[in-house]
Every structure is written in structure tokens, then in C-alpha cells.
Amino acid sequence: MLAKYKPPKFEIEDLCIPESDPMYNNAVRCIQTYWKQAADMTKGQRQKYLWYLQKTHINHFVAKPFECHGGTVTAHSLYQRARDDAGNFVRLSWPVYLLLSSLYGDLPKRYKEAIEQKYGTSVIEDYTTFYRSFYPTPTSTMEKSVTEGITSVANIGDFIHRASRDSSSTASETNLSRGPWNIETVIKDLDVSKTKRSPSALESPQKRTKLSDDEILSRLNQHTEAIQKIVHEAQLEQRSKLQEVHHDVEKGVQTLNSMQNDLRQFMSAVASALKDIGEHLNE
């Protein structure tokens, strides 16, 4: 019986592992199984199944055991948890069955029989269409790029077609207004266009370019002068600070020398006093 409420969304893009990861293909198969069964599972079963695919659990439950452990479903921790010490299947779970089926395909006969006895079937029905009724198939990045490229090409083609059509229409109207086309008409049009162009009109772009270059050069010189002024002021300020530091150092050296002289005098006085005390004691 299909669920009454839409199932939680979980797409391949929601995986927390890159495509280069060895278990990426296994994880994709698990997600595809979720699409098939999301509508037929209970809320608790869906939550449990998606719990196995979360970042903190996927490495443990989706990765197949190493070959040294047999590399089969019997070595998987979820399969082992389903059995007791005697090998009987006593802890069965539909989400676990779906996960193991996604990873290993056909499962042991005794395990499938135990699933059928508990859930009435071991067939994994495909209800992907129901899931996609809520969540349409996402378009991959490559498909989007191709679609956009095709659209761009189509738009360019339409533009060229319209431009060509408009040009043809304009040319036709011009030719019709001037009468039938002939070489004399073309030469006449060229002569008229040459006559209309004055020397000043031909020189004006060059003058404008020259004026523009002069203006750019003037602004560049202004910026250069401003930068040089800033550098000069910074050098003066740095020189002033260095002089202050040098003065402070010299002052500190003088103070230290004075303290050393005072200390020598004090030590000399102490030595003299100790000598006098020693002489008095000897007497």
C-alpha cells in the first residue's frame, strides 16, 4: 500500500561522498532502491533506511566488507545482526533487506524466506514513478550545459535569419526606389558619397583620437606627480622617525654610561668601607 504522504527527498546529489570514492556506485544503487520503495515504506522504515546513508554511517554500512572477510553478504554487519547464535534470523528489518539487496543483488535463500514470512513478500516493487510525481528527475550539470548551448545556437540562428531577412527586405526596397540596378547607378552613388564627405569630416576622428590621447597623457602625468608627492612625503616622515629613534638611542646610551659610572663609584665606596671594617676588626 502506497504512503499517503510524500516521502522525504533524497537524490544522488545529496550523497556526502565524491564520484571518485570506491563505494560511490554502491551508494547510488542504494539511493535508486530508495526511489523504488520510498512510497511503500512506513515513516520509520524510511528514516531508518536514510539513516544508513548519512555521512556518519555510510562508510560503515554501504561499503562492502574486504575480500579477506569473504566479500559476501554473510560478512556484512547488518546481516550478522539479523541472526542469533544458532544462525536463525530473529532480527529482521525491511530497510536492512533493501540495503543488502542493493549492495549484493540476490541474497541467501534462507534469509529471503525469513523476510517473506515476516513481510509477506521479498519482491522489491518499483514505485519510482510515484516518488518522481513529487520530485521530478533533476537535470545534471552536463545536460544543462548542452541544453543551454543548443538554445544559444538556436537563438543565434534565428537572429541571423531575421537579420538576413531584414537586410534583404531593405535592399529590395532601396533598389525598387532607385529603379533597376546597373553599374552606372552604383558609380553615381559612389561619387555622391565622396562629394558629401568633407576633409574636416575625415580628419575629425583623428583629431578626436589625438585629443583623447593628450587628455589621457595629461591625466597620467597628474597621477604620477601625485604618487611621487606621496612617496616623497612618506620618505620625509620615515627619515624624521629614524632621526627620533637615533636620538632616543643616543640618549639611552648616555644614560646607561652614567649609570655604569655611578655603579663603579658605589662599588668603590663599598670596597673601601669593607676594607676599613676589616682593619678595625683586626685591631
Question: In a few lines, what is going on in this structure?
Answer:
This protein is an all-alpha fold and 283 residues long.
Strand and helix layout:
Layout: H1 24-37, H2 43-52, H3 58-61, H4 77-81, H5 94-104, H6 109-119, H7 128-134, H8 141-178, H9 183-196, H10 199-282
Helix pairs in contact: 1-5, 1-7, 2-5
Task: Describe the overall structure.
This protein folds into 2 domains: 12-140, no CATH class; 201-283. It contains 10 helices and no strands. The protein has helices spanning 24-37, 43-52, 58-61, 77-81, 94-104, 109-119, 128-134, 141-178, 183-196, 199-282. The longest helix has 84 residues, at 199-282. The radius of gyration is 46 Å and the shape is elongated.
